[in-house]
Structures are given as structure tokens and as C-alpha cells.
Specification:
Chain B: One of its GO terms (molecular function) is ABC-type transporter activity. Chain B: Belongs to the ABC-2 integral membrane protein family. Chain B: It comes from Flavisphingopyxis soli. Chain B: The chain crosses the membrane at residues 21-43, 55-82, 103-125, 137-157, 169-188, 194-215, 227-245. The structure holds two protein chains of two kinds. Chain A is α/β, with parallel strands linked by helices. Chain A has helices at residues 7-13, 64-72, 93-98, 115-125, 132-141, 157-169, 187-202, 214-220, 238-245, 292-301, 316-331, and strands at residues 25-33, 39-48, 53-57, 79-84, 87-88, 100-103, 175-179, 206-211, 223-228, 231-237, 247-254, 270-273, 278-284, 306-313. In chain A, strands 6-7-8-3-9-10 form a six-stranded mixed beta sheet, sandwiched between helices. In chain A, strands 2-1-4-5 form a four-stranded antiparallel beta sheet. In chain A, α7 (187-202) links the parallel β7 and β8 (206-211). In chain A, α4 (115-125) runs parallel beside α6 (157-169). The N and C termini of chain A lie far apart (63 Å). Chain B is mainly alpha-helical. Chain B has one domain (3-247). Chain B has helices at residues 3-19, 21-43, 55-58, 60-86, 89-93, 99-128, 136-160, 164-181, 193-199, 203-216, 223-247. In chain B, α1 (3-19) packs parallel to α6, α4 packs antiparallel against α8 (164-181) and α4 packs across α10 (203-216). The chains are: A alpha/beta, B mainly alpha.
């Protein structure tokens, strides 16, 4: 403690004592079987901490949207429960829903309404009293202010997406669901969206987003959950997941094309590509020995020369494809 | 209670009517005028009085009821069908608002418009016939209750309908026959005895009779039967609508 610094100022910098340890979202055994008999969710458990950005990753039809809709009240769950900031989303839905914002995947908008009217409507619908200053700031942040008096049907798809986000944020939610926020969105809006998500996180808003753009999860999320066929297969910190399952590929551009992989190199997991001009070696970065130096030595002994080489870290996308296939293989051995 | 939310939906619906304000008022006025010209002047001049009431005045309650029935079902069913069709219903379903509050907001707005339409027709009728009103307060109360009941009925059709065609079918197949056969333009006492009995199963008979009583002090059935039928119809519609929201029938999966 520096001389002259009062004890009070130190106490003040401590985290607020009333911050409850209650998670932003606690889902337990949440299941959904549609009337058609399709099981969209098999008893999913998931906890998302406050202030976290959580990405739900999965192919189309995996159950991402059903999971979000079951929490938000759009789908009636067949079983299990969900709590948003400690409030049961079914028995105490008023308190829960006041704190939840939802941006659905589809652009559902009222064609004839103006931007300002529809965003103000959403705020009141969620029981918040009128706040012109807040709505103006929100619309400015989303570069919608100039379009505030335009009818929604006159807007481009990207602008409509912004309107949907503005509606979801109009009542200052603490837990925001973004269902495929960047599907069919241009680079500009995607960048703005990521900017916005970071800004919201700084304000302590918890964000659950679904995506099948892996780069989005990689870029944004603190943790990633992979969902396939209605089951959460894995929930892991993004970095850990990358490390754990990260694979690298080494590609060697050969000086002379090879017809087949030489016997002497059979110990390595090699493949030929580009009509024999490229030798591809896939290895695990977490293995004790990657096998790269020994491969290069062996090649040198065989007098196989190469002009260039590059290595590539596998993206979450590859990881994700592996995971989904593994879980499918477990089910149908 | 989320009063702000209820008010927001009510205002939203009223704004929607506002956009079609003139057409929605001009249409009933023209329709009513046409009925007066055809029934009141052309045919009415050859009709005797019914129960001491001139025929032109006699048909006014039936005309108001017919227009309100059509308007109510049209507005209330469209009001909830559109968000379902356009997908914007997601916001209502995810909002901190109860089923009852949602119904109050949508049906309240549609009923407001129906009452306005009813009053406009009432005013238009004065241009054509002398129209005494025996029980003005009862008449206004009946007007409002009928508007609410018809709008609830329209609202449940809007939830039930899965296509624009289904939205149209009920007014055409149910409302017009029931209203025309329910004594909108005649007294059921003019029917042969067998048909009089059959007609008593038509709920619209009780509504028209009760509404006519508030004008002329007499109806085809007793006022108690009319009030009972109205209460029953209203209660039934309300119960079905609440059940639809509770179970998510055709609203959520």
C-alpha cells in the first residue's frame, strides 16, 4: 500500500461483494422430443458462468437452435430445467426472460414498422420503461440511427440483422443468445458484430452464440461446446480444445515427383498429393516426438529433395468434423 | 403484471389498424348503406312492421352485429396469424408476458376497433331511419361484450389457422350462415314452428335478440337467455384461448 493511499480506495477496487456466484445459465437434463418423434435434445447439461462467451458448435440439425429456444420459451422442453441468472425459465419465467435477449437465426421482422418503432416496442414488451437516450445510443452503436425512420422492409439483409440485434438488446439483457449471428452476413457486419460482442462482455453481459463458422468460435469464445445429434459431446475451453485435439500437417513440395511412398518412409503417416509433387505428413503436436526431424533425415538419406515446406495447424473445423464423426462411429460401430 | 408489455402490443395493433384506418371505416359504412338501400328501401317498403318496429329500424341491430362479427374475426385472427406467419411471434413468446396478458393486449385492440366500427354503423343508420334506443347503457355494454367475444373467437381462429385459406374459411362457412339464419334480418317468430326450434341451437340468435332488446325493449328470446348465451360464448372462447397458450397449441413446438 502506497503512503497516502487510503484503505477506502483499496476496498473500493475489490470486486463488488454482491456479485453472486450464480451462473448466468444453468441447464440440467434439458430434453426435447418433437411431436413428430424427432429427438432434438437428449438431456443436455450445461453451465455458463457470468461474463463468459460460450460458443455452441454443431452442424445443421444438431439441436443448437432447439436448445436456445427451449431456454427462451419458444419451444416447450420435454424434460429438465434451465435457470437464467438463478431464475427458473419455466416457473419464474418473468424474472428470467427480463434478463434474456434473443437474436434468432431467421430475419423475422415486421415489414411495415420503422426501425425506431420496432426497437422501442421490444423494450416495452420486456417491461422496461421508455428510455430515448439509451435507444439512441443503441441505434448509433449499431449504425442504425440514420435509418431510424426507415421501414424495415426497405433495409438490406445486413441492416435487418442489426435491427434484430438492437431489438434483443433494447431491454438491456444480462444474458444474450445469438443464434447463428453471422450466417449470410458480410465482412463489415461480421467485424462489427465481433466488436459488439467484445463490448458487451466488457459490460459483463454473458453471451451464448451458436455457429457453424468455426473461426467465429475460435476468435470469440472463452469456451466451446460441440453439439451433434442432440448431445453435447464436449465442453472445453477453446484453447484447451485446440491444444488437446490440435493436429498439424507438414506439406513438402518435392523437387522431383514421387510415384509412390518409398518403403523406408512407411513408418510415418504420409500421403502423396498434387500428382506426387507434394508429400503430406500429418502429426500430433501433443505427441512426445512429432517425427518431423527423423522424417527429414530419412528423406535426406533417400536423396528426396524438396523446394519448399509449410506446416498448418488444424482449425477447430477439422477438430469438430473429427468429433462428430467419432460420436457417429460410437453409435454405429 | 407486465403492463408496459400489454400496452406495447395494444399500441402496436392499434397502429396497424391506423394504417388502414380509412378503408376499414369506409367499407362498413358502404356495406351498411347498401343493406339499407336494398332491405330498407327496396324490400322494406313492402314489409310490414315487425312487432311494432318499422322494418328499416328492425334490421339495424342485426346489421351492426354482422359487421362487427366480420370485422372482429378478420382483425383478431389476422393480428395473431401474421406474427405466426412472419415468424415475429418469437419475440412475444420469449417476452416476460403471460398468456392472459397477451390475449388482453391483442383482443383488447381488436375489440376497440370493432366497437368503433359498430358505433360508425350505428351513426350511419341514423341517416336512413329513425332509431330509438330504449336502453342506451345496456346497448353500449352489449356492444362491447359482443366485440370482445367475437374478437376472442377470431383470435382462436388465428391461432388455429395454418394457412391464409383457413383464415378465410371460418368467416365464410360459419359466420355468414349463422348470422343470416340467426334472425339478423327477420324475427325468428316468422319461421315455421319446427325451424324456430332448430334455430334456437344457433348462438347468434341469442346475441341478436339481446342486442335488439336494448334498442326496442323486446326480443325473440328472454334477456336472461341472451346474457347467459353471451357469457357462455365468451367464457368458452376465453377458456380455449388460454388453453392454446398454456399448451402452446400451434404457437410453439
Amino acid at each position: 500500500m502506497r503512503p497516502g493511499q487510503s484503505l477506502c480506495s483499496i476496498v473500493m477496487t475489490q470486486p463488488a461483494p454482491d456479485t453472486p456466484a450464480t451462473p448466468a445459465l444453468a441447464i440440467s437434463g434439458l430434453a426435447k422430443t418433437y411431436a413428430s418423434g424427432v429427438v432434438a435434445l437428449h438431456a443436455v447439461d450445461l453451465t455458463v458462468a457470468r461474463g463468459e462467451i460460450f460458443a455452441l458448435l454443431g452442424p445443421n440439425g444438431a439441436g443448437k437452435t432447439t436448445l436456445i429456444n427451449a431456454v427462451c420459451g419458444i419451444v416447450t422442453p420435454s424434460g429438465g430445467s434451465a435457470h437464467a441468472l438463478g431464475h427458473d425459465t419455466r416457473t419464474d419465467y418473468r424474472s428470467a426472460r427480463r434478463l434474456i435477449g434473443l437474436v434468432p437465426q431467421e430475419l423475422h421482422t415486421d415489414a411495415f414498422e420503422t426501425v425506431l418503432a420496432t426497437v422501442s416496442f421490444s423494450r416495452k414488451l420486456f417491461g422496461r420503461s421508455r428510455d430515448d437516450a439509451f435507444i439512441e445510443k443503441l441505434l448509433r452503436d449499431l449504425t442504425l440511427w440514420d435509418k431510424r425512420d426507415a421501414k424495415i422492409m426497405e433495409l438490406s439483409g445486413g441492416m435487418k440483422r442489426r435491427v434484430m440485434i438492437a431489438k434483443a438488446l433494447s431491454h438491456e439483457p444480462e444474458l444474450l443468445f445469438l443464434d447463428e449471428p453471422t450466417a449470410g452476413v458480410d465482412v463489415d457486419l461480421r467485424r462489427d458484430m465481433w466488436e459488439m460482442v467484445r463490448g458487451l462482455r466488457e459490460r459483463g453481459v454473458t453471451i451464448v452464440l451458436t455457429t457453424h463458422y468455426i473461426e467465429e468460435a475460435e476468435e470469440m469464445a472463452d469456451r466451446v461446446g460441440v453439439i451433434a445429434k442432440g448431445r453435447l459431446i464436449i465442453v472445453e475451453e477453446t484453447r484447451t480444445l485446440m491444444k488437446k485435439l490440435g493436429r498439424k500437417t507438414l506439406t513438402l513440395n518435392l523437387a522431383q515427383p514421387l510415384g509412390a511412398i518409398p518403403e523406408a518412409l512407411a513408418n510415418w503417416n504420409l500421403a502423396l498429393a498434387g500428382d506426387g509433387h507434394e508429400l503430406v505428413y500429418e502429426f500430433d503436436t501433443q505427441a512426445e516426438a512429432t517425427g518431423v526431424p527423423s522424417l527429414l533425415r530419412a528423406m535426406s538419406d533417400l536423396d528426396i529433395g524438396f523446394k519448399d515446406l509449410n506446416t498448418k495447424q488444424s482449425s477447430l473445423e477439422d477438430i469438430f468434423v473429427d468429433l462428430v464423426h467419432e460420436s457417429a462411429a460410437e453409435k454405429h460401430p | 403484471m407486465n403492463l408496459l408489455g400489454v400496452w406495447a402490443i395494444y399500441r402496436f395493433e392499434m397502429a396497424r389498424f391506423g394504417r388502414t384506418f380509412w378503408t376499414s371505416l369506409v367499407v362498413p359504412v358502404i356495406t351498411t348503406s347498401l343493406y339499407f338501400i336494398v332491405f330498407g328501401s327496396a324490400i322494406g317498403s313492402r314489409m310490414t312492421e315487425i312487432g311494432g318496429v318499422p322494418y328499416g329500424a328492425f334490421i339495424v341491430p342485426g346489421l351492426i352485429l354482422l359487421s362487427m362479427f366480420t370485422e372482429s374475426i378478420g382483425n383478431a385472427s389476422f393480428g395473431i396469424y401474421m406474427p405466426k406467419w412472419a415468424g415475429t411471434i418469437y419475440e412475444i413468446l420469449s417476452a416476460p408476458i403471460s398468456p392472459l396478458e397477451t390475449v388482453i393486449a391483442y383482443v383488447g385492440a381488436a375489440a376497440t376497433k370493432s366497437v368503433i366500427v359498430g358505433l360508425v354503423i350505428f351513426a350511419t343508420a341514423h341517416l336512413f331511419v329513425d332509431l330509438p334506443v330504449a336502453h342506451p347503457f345496456a346497448m353500449f355494454a352489449f356492444l362491447i361484450l359482443m366485440a370482445v367475444t367475437f374478437c376472442l373467437f377470431g383470435f382462436l381462429i388465428g391461432i388455429w389457422a395454418q394457412s391464409f385459406e383457413q383464415l378465410q374459411v371460418i368467416p365464410l362457412l360459419v359466420v355468414y350462415p349463422l348470422t343470416f339464419l340467426g334472425g339478423a334480418f327477420y324475427s325468428i317468430k316468422m319461421l315455421p314452428p319446427l325451424w324456430q326450434t332448430v334455430t334456437l341451437f344457433n348462438p347468434v340468435v341469442y346475441l341478436i335478440s339481446g342486442f335488439r332488446w336494448t334498442f326496442f325493449g323486446k326480443g325473440d328470446v328472454t334477456m336472461a337467455a341472451s346474457i347467459g348465451a353471451l357469457a357462455l360464448f365468451l367464457g368458452l372462447c376465453l377458456a380455449i384461448v388460454i388453453w392454446m397458450f398454456r399448451t402452446g397449441y400451434r404457437l410453439k413446438s
